[in-house]
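User
Class, as today's exercise, I want you to study this protein, comparing sequence with structure tokens, and judge whether sequence predicts the tokens.
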Amino acid sequence: MLYDIALDAVGSDKAPEPEIRGAILACRALPVRVHMVGPEPELRDLLDEHLENEELPIVIHHASERIGMDEKAAHAVRIKKDSSMRVGLKLVREGAAAGFVTAGNTGAAMATAKMVLGALPGVDRPALATPMPTSKGGNPCVLLDVGANVDCKAHNLEQFAVMGEMYARSVLKIHQPRVGLLSIGEEETKGNDLTREAFPLLKALPIHFIGNVEGRDIFNGQADVIVCDGFVGNVALKTSEGIGRFVRDVLRESLTRTVTAQVGALLSRRAFNDFRRRLDYTEYGGAPLLGVRGVCIIGHGSSNDNAIYNGIRVAYEFARAGTNQRIEQEFANRPRRDPHSHTDGPDATIQ
């Protein structure tokens, strides 16, 4: 059985080359049929060049418009009716695809997904969840939200905790995920108004809540899921990526500085390559947008073919695990809150 995955073929900074190469890699390695969405004549010519008569399950769907990285999300989503994002997400809504992958404008992807797919019942705001490497060497830590919602309320973090815990169980196969709340200290009284208000809500959930965790705990394996608002999460994510590149570059420089170091580098090449791979964002593929009625994976704008391949892999695994259905069922079984107990203003998304 092949899983149908829609791919925004003109999303990344260097599109469509990484998307085409990534789709070919995915179709060779995974039980998927990739639906590439974008300008058909251009994609057809490039695909024929890369395939060289090889038969792979790749389908092209024409979309005449592309949403650029520098465009305002709300405006672009409203006026570009035939964008690759909208066409691809419609395939998911109509059941023609089990998931959608894009390395395009994050704000536009979230806004389009919420408009085309709709939010799951009981979810006020979708959240971007990204796996972060840990020193334990096993399962990564899931950090959410990492950029979909700049400003959050306590009940948003409560919902993020439920979705992140379900994702860790369904996709990462962690039996009882440990869920932490990102703050500036372990004590319940530490943090700002948001974290102090969210703490008792998470504590009351039927999950393994371990209390407040700090920034260093993202990487030490103390928690399997860490919850925060999108502003804090995005800063943590971008800082981590910068530190990862810094450490990698410093190590490379140190290991090639002298002849002795070069000999040592040859002996430790396997360990260094493993280290580099664990810090490489392209190995993780992208961040699932949790809380919408369909699988939507959002990757880096600088994604290469390996990142696109892994984005398709994540979409396939997410769809195969039925994570969206599990999250929806989880919310359906929860007691309903008084609809007047809180109100959300307009979604505050990163544009």
About this structure: Confidence is low (pLDDT under 50) at residues 345-351. The longest strand covers residues 32-38. The CA atoms of residues 149 and 349 lie 5 Å apart. The chain is about 45% helix and 15% strand.
